[in-house]
Specification:
Structural class: alpha+beta
Largest sheet: 5 strands, antiparallel
Strand content: 5-15%
Helix content: 40-55%
Radius of gyration: 32 Å
Distance between the termini: 40 Å
Number of strands: 16
Strand order of the largest sheet: 1-2-3-4-5
């Protein structure tokens, strides 16, 4: 859903945009650095090493010169939270304290995405009620045994799913939710016989929320003996396991303050650490770390400490999976707690002992060498070869050349192998890191004539000049077809909307201009004392250019008429040529009389 399909008044949308500072909004997700009048960062929507994501405080828009994504505050919220336009409007309206017209919202059907969020919110409330009721006695005793305090249960909204076959299904039906919605949300199941039942039964329930606190799904830990021990929501339209990190909604502030994040495996690991005061922590929900999770964490920090359980299944594979963080320019350290998982460790030895373990965490590459050395001798030829096979592909994924060289030096010392031999082996390896996500190469869009480019920038920068331009210039007078389309759009929109906002037209403009030129059109700030003079100069140069091209065409026609001895045609062409040349002279004199002031 986009702006054109939502019946919220444009004045309300404009009011929200005026209240939201796009630099502050995006800065809460990404580390922005000033670049002239704009701000720059690594794009959160595609992998890149060199920042090409720009934010303009003047125009209140963002644009990535790499992947072409761009827009205003609504678009950014839609992309980062993976919600539709109406939900983005609601979110920002709530933050800014702007009331949305109820009659407009009521006329809009509830979006399918919103209904899934609503179903999850209802389920969270239901599970919380069940935990506090008589049926939750066993679950409460279990949670007390695990050392969780009442305040912690409230913070993480921990609940209980009773053992009844369809308790939640009946509850949700009574609240107006259809079976189809509950199935799509993953809250109920359909058995082989076609009978519907609750997905979670007789389990402690952990809501899984995104960074804005919206519940995406749930995890459930069984109370009795049985399998699976942990059961998670399936992936749905709003929940993709590899994109989320449990607990980040609670720990995000601490991660930014600490400028580092601790990654553990499970729900209880995170909750117990958080309760003990170790707050910059997230959990992977038992999955391998993904690039999406790395990019999510990149909004908060570039320093990560991974805490492995002593019996973490497939640890070697998990260690190789951490190469994703090397590719994303994280500083990665690893620690394995002595014989216990984080949950047990913090309860038995306390917070200070845990922090000491974190401080002693080893960088990923040395840690992997240590683990390998515990299995094979790094002094033997076979051990050296295996170490190179394990480590060198990971080194190729390190973007920082200085850090990569330092690790090569350390590896050479550890293996007693010459650095040049290691470098020779590196050249033979085709690293998966070289095959990671890359944007397709494409030729730069041909540049617009300078006067036409400046004209469009001036009009986009301040829509009040559109009527001024419309009285003096037609789109057909522009020489570039893309510029003609943009100017036509400006003129048509100005009839309904005198004041244009750049973010509102970004999608259309990208389609018309191509992302290469589009970025410079919308992001370049204009600092002109006399915009009317600049605009007049642009219009005159465009008209002069047209006349000069017309003269060149007339010259060719005159030569052809002379060659064919077409006296009548030749006379008419000469008269037209002289009239056009006189017009060019007048335009030039007008410009010279007013002074150019360095405009195009």
């Amino acid at each position: 859903m986009d702006e054109d399909h939502v019946s919220i008044p444009q004045e309300t949308l404009d009011q929200i945009q005026e209240r939201v500072d796009i630099v502050e909004l995006i800065g809460s997700h990404l580390p922005l650095k000033r670049a002239g009048r704009n701000f720059r960062a690594l794009c959160p929507f595609h992998h890149e090493k060199t920042p090409s994501f720009m934010v303009s405080p003047d125009k209140q828009i963002f644009h990535c010169f790499g992947c072409g994504e761009g827009g205003g505050v609504f678009r950014f919220v839609m992309k980062t939270e993976r919600i539709d336009f109406l939900d983005a409007v609601r979110s920002l309206a709530e933050k800014t304290g702007i009331a949305l017209p109820k009659k407009n919202l009521e006329s809009e059907p509830s979006s399918e995405t919103s209904r899934l969020y609503e179903a999850n919110t209802l389920a969270q409330s239901y599970y919380r009620q069940c935990l506090s009721g008589k049926e939750g006695d066993a679950a409460r005793r279990y949670l007390v045994k695990r050392g969780l305090e009442e305040k912690t249960l409230e913070i993480f909204q921990i609940g209980y799913a009773p053992s009844s076959f369809n308790g939640f299904l009946s509850y949700a039906h009574a609240k107006g939710f259809s079976e189809e919605t509950l199935l799509r949300a993953g809250l109920i199941l359909k058995g082989e016989e076609g009978r519907l039942r609750d997905r979670f039964r007789h389990r402690v329930i952990f809501p899984i929320a995104n960074t804005k606190g919206r519940v995406l799904g749930f995890g459930g830990r069984i109370l009795d003996q049985g399998n699976p021990k942990y059961l998670n929501s399936p992936e749905t339209e709003i929940y993709t396991k590899g994109r989320e990190l449990y607990g980040l909604v609670h720990s995000g502030k601490a991660v930014r303050e600490k400028e580092a994040v601790i990654v553990v495996e499970g729900y209880f690991d995170l909750i117990t650490l958080f309760q003990a005061g170790v707050e910059p922590v997230v959990a992977t929900l038992g999955t391998s770390l993904t690039r999406d999770q790395a990019r999510l964490l990149k909004r908060y920090t570039h320093d990560i400490v991974v805490v492995f359980d002593p019996d973490w299944a497939g640890e070697a594979a998990s260690l190789r999976g951490l190469d994703i963080f090397l590719e994303e320019d994280f500083s990665v350290r690893v620690v394995t707690l002595p014989g216990v998982d984080p949950d047990d460790f913090i309860r038995k030895k306390g917070r200070e002992a845990f922090w000491k373990e974190i401080e002693a965490a080893k960088p990923l590459i040395p840690y992997r060498l240590d683990r390998l050395a515990a299995k094979v001798s790094l002094k033997s030829p076979e051990g050296k070869v295996r170490a190179c096979q394990e480590i060198l592909p990971s080194l190729l994924k390190i973007g920082n050349a200085v850090l990569r060289s330092e690790y090569i030096r350390e590896l050479g010392e550890r293996l007693s192998v010459k650095e040049e031999d290691l470098l020779s082996e590196l050249k033979k390896i085709k690293s998966p890191g070289w095959e990671r996500e890359q944007l397709p190469l494409r030729k730069e869009n041909a540049p617009l004539p300078p006067a036409e480019a400046m004209l469009l920038r001036l009009l986009l920068d301040d829509g009040k000049w559109i009527s001024f331009s419309k009285e003096r210039l037609t789109p057909e007078e522009l020489s570039d077809g893309r510029a003609q389309k943009v100017l036509t759009t400006f003129y048509e929109r100005s009839e309904k909307e005198p004041t244009m906002h750049a973010a509102r037209f970004m999608t259309e403009l990208k389609d018309m201009m191509g992302k290469g030129f589009f970025g410079s059109l919308v992001m370049e700030s204009l600092d002109l004392l006399d915009k009317e003079k600049a605009l007049t100069d642009c219009i005159q140069k465009i008209k002069t250019g047209n006349s000069i091209r017309h003269l060149a065409s007339l010259e060719e026609q005159i030569k052809e008429a002379e060659k064919l001895r077409e006296e009548g045609r030749l006379k008419g062409l000469m008269e037209e040529f002289l009239a056009v040349r006189k017009g060019v002279s007048l335009l030039e004199k007008t410009r010279q009389g007013k002074g150019e002031r360095g405009h195009p």
